[in-house]
Structures are given as C-alpha cells and as structure tokens.
Amino acid sequence: MRTFTLLALSLWASPTFAQVYIGGAVGLDTTLVTSFESAGALQPDRGGTTPALAVRAGIALGQRWGAEVEVAHAFTIERSDTSDGSILAAGARAPVRITWTSVGDFGIDAFPPIRFAPTFHIESEQQLTAVNALAWVSYAMSSRIDLVLAAGAAFNRTSVEQRVRFEPVLLPGFPAGLPIDLFAPSMRVVNYGVGPVVGVETRIGLGDHLRVVPALRMSTAFSGWSVRPTVGVAWMF
Fold this sequence. Notes:
Elements (H helix, E strand, L loop, with lengths): L1 H12 L5 E15 L14 E13 L4 E10 L2 E8 L2 E2 L8 E4 L5 E4 L5 E26 L4 E25 L16 E21 L3 E12 L2 E13 L1
Antiparallel strand pairs: 1-2, 1-12, 2-3, 3-8, 4-8, 5-8, 6-7, 8-9, 9-10, 10-11, 11-12
C-alpha cells in the first residue's frame, strides 16, 4: 500500500507524467440501428445522421498513455414514414330480411362489405447522449503529431418518441381524398445502457498548449451503433 501511494504521488507531482487537458469538438453522429422490412409494416426508427457536440477532460499519466472522460450529445434525428394499404372490412349490413317459401327454404339479403384504403403516418424523434470513460495510448508520428488509440465504456441515454396517425380514405359516400383521423397514439421510450466504445484521433500540436484533434468514435447505442467523426481542439496545461 505504501509503494502504491508513493507511486501515485510521484505521478501526480511530476509534470512529465501528469499533464491535464480539456477540449471540445463538433461533428456528426450517425446512428445505425437494427431494423426490418416487411410488406405493409413500418419501421421508421432506422437511425440517421445529425450534428453532435462533445466536451472532454483528461490526464496524461505517462509519456504515451492516459485517461479521459467525454460527454457527447447528438441533436434530434427526425424521421417520417408513410404506408398505403387496403383493408377489407366487414362493413355495416342492412337489417336481415328473411323470405320463406312453401317448402321452408329462406334467403338472407345484406349489403356487401365496405372496402377502403387507409394511410399510416409514423413520425419518430431520436436523441442520444453518452458519457464515455476512456483509456488511451499515443504514438508519436512526428515532433508535432501524435496518433492516439482509445477504448473504454460508454454510458448511453437514448430517447425515442413515436407518433402514429391512421387515415382511412374513400369511404362510400365521402368525397375522394378526404382524410379522417381515427386516433393519434404516441409512445416515448428512454433507454439507459452501457457498452464498449473505441476511437482513434490525431493530436496536432500548435504551440506548447494548443492541439487540433480530428477524431473518430464508435460506441454502442440503443439497438445499434453510434459512429461519430469530429474535429476539435484541446488545451494542455
């Protein structure tokens, strides 16, 4: 225990082995989620691409390795899908009229089934926020450029909201194309998850403290993956 304490204090006290940095980045977040396709069925939540922001703080604990915490937030992904189909409904029937014959036979008269064509509209909104805990190792490409590989755990919060509209059209006796909203249900799901995150970035030195950092992160998300290319800056203390 004494050896571990002395080692930790020596790393913290030495500027060579304990260099703190903070940074921020902007970029895009592409969400790739599990989906299916089926005739007559809608699956609007198929991910998409949206702008993203990230802030980070880290510490270099050696010449080539360190750790950092990153908070990433993607803006809302909005999708809208429409599906046309036809449903053969039983329909309303007229009062039954029974006709008797002399031998006891009878017949039943009724209206035929009513046929109409419904339209389904599904609108969805999806938003991802993640807190990533990473360890990294760097490789010097030149005196001013370092290649950094990172890996760790991603703690995700994914919010998905869906709204559905069902519009039957062309009912008998109605004008062509007249929509009728029967119901408008909505659903909101908030999912919390944890999974792996990996990344690669390049730290380009501009002076003693400023770094330009193009980066790529890939982490787990709700029912899929999040791929996030960014460009940012970091300030080394």
